[in-house]
Amino acid sequence: MGGVLIGFAVIGFVIFVGWLLARLNVVNQEGRLVLNKTSFFAASPALLFIVLSEADVGLLFSSVLAVALIGFIAVAVIYIVVARIWFTRDPSRIALGATASGYSNVNNIGLPVAIYVIGDPGFIGPMLLLQLLVLAPLLLTTLDVLTAGRASFMGIITQPLRNPMLIAAALGALVSALGIQLPDPVLAPLEILGGAAVPLMLLAFGISLGGERPLQPGSGRKEVALAVVLKSLAMPVIAYLLARFAFGLDEQLVYACTVMAALPSAQNMYQYALRYDRATAVTRDIVLLTTIASLPVMLVVAWLLKPA
User: Total domain count for the chain?
Assistant: First the structure.
């Protein structure tokens, strides 16, 4: 578990730096918008392109991926129904909350978890491809359409085609599918930009914590609580039941599916919320609280299910 603790410590340190910058008034709350826009329009697209251009798209078709996808759909549907009936009628807010309830932090925490808890980094690939090629484009397209206002029909349906994240994901997947080997002069600047994506997101997240304390009255605490319960508790249970009984996977795969399902919600959710100015406090608190809850949950899963 040492590697997992290191992974959490690295993320926590960068978030702390962002919080400290805000508390010392080095960067104000407007500064987080600059960081987020830089990440959304430049750094994150570069990172997406590099990751997907080097990935094996064939990994999208596996039992492990099926467990992750069905688990995501289950918690997202539960969130949508409960939130729509009791909490809010804002479709953008519901879309972000539902996605945050199942979208895992595969990039930052998932890798050390896969290496040190499961013992096989190969489990990162299917989940990463699922989220980057399916779930993120679906959410971004939904937010593009919902926030298009009174744009024309053609403007609405072509809005996703002007989204840099979606364009980068599509191009990266195309490069991978065609087996194109990109030369170093092309990859080098993209790697520099892509390397800034995660730090920029984490710094913006930390700055937001310096401006307003989590779980403030009127910030959507019930929505946050619902998402945290679904992500931290319901999703690992659903993943376990699916892997064990629906797909009949062996002990190692059941363990892997359950551990990966216990990952916290990804910082990408806050980035998207900030970009579209929807449910920023809700998504920020979901990311923060699921990150705190995920470590003890994964320790319990390892204790109960880890094969001898």
Answer: 1
